[in-house]
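A.,

Following up on our hallway conversation. C-alpha cells first:
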C-alpha cells in the first residue's frame, strides 16, 4: 500500500509516494536522491544514517517515512549556509575528524543534534551534576556520541572537533 507524503528536506519541500513500510533512509536515498545519510548496518546500531528530524537526531533506518509527513529533515548536506560549512563541519575538517568518510555525515548530524541537546540542558548517563549545564569533557562527548560508530577509529579527532565546535 502506498501513501503520499511530503518532507521538507534540507530546506526544500519534496513530495513522494512511498510504500508504508519504507524507512526514512530509503525514501531519502532511493526516492529523493539524497545520499549523505548512509546505510551502514540497517539496524540502528551504527549511526551512519543519522539525520535531524524536526531538529532532533534520529537513525533514519529505523524511522518510517509515512510517520513523518510534513516533517523537516536536515542531512549533512543541508547544514551548510551556502558555501560556508556549518561550524561542526568546519571543525571536522580542521581536526581531521574522518578517515574513509563513510560515517562522517551521520557523525556530523549527530554532533549538531547533541550540541542542541546540551544547550537545552539535557543530561546524559555520565552527567554528574543534574542541576548545572553539562560540561562537555571527553567522557561526556563520547557518551553522547556512542550511537555513532567509526570503523576507521577516528574518535580522538571527532571528539576534538566536537569540543571545538561547542566552544
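Then the amino acids I'd put at each of the 167 positions:
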Amino acid at each position: 500500500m502506498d501513501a503520499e507524503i511530503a518532507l521538507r528536506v534540507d530546506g526544500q519541500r519534496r513530495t513522494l509516494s512511498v510504500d508504508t513500510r519504507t524507512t526514512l533512509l530509503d525514501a531519502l536515498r532511493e526516492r529523493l536522491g539524497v545520499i549523505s545519510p548512509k546505510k551502514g548496518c540497517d539496524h540502528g546500531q551504527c549511526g551512519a544514517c543519522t539525520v535531524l528530524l524536526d531538529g532532533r537526531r534520529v537513525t533514519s533506518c529505523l524511522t518510517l517515512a509515512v510517520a513523518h509527513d510534513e516533517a523537516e529533515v536536515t542531512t549533512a548536506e543541508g547544514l551548510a549556509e551556502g558555501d560556508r560549512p556549518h561550524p561542526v563541519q568546519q571543525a571536522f575538517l580542521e581536526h581531521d575528524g574522518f578517515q574513509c568518510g563513510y560515517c562522517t555525515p551521520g557523525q556530523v548530524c549527530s554532533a549538531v543534534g547533541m550540541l542542541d541537546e546540551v544547550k537545552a540542558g539535557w543530561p546524559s548517563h555520565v552527567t554528574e551534576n543534574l542541576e548545572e549545564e553539562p560540561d562537555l569533557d571527553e567522557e561526556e562527548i563520547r557518551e553522547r556520541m556512542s550511537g555513532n560508530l567509526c570503523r576507521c577509529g577516528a574518535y580522538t579527532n571527532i571528539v576534538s572537533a566536537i569540543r571545538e565546535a561547542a566552544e
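The chain has two domains: 2-76, 87-166. Curious whether your intuition agrees with the design.

B.
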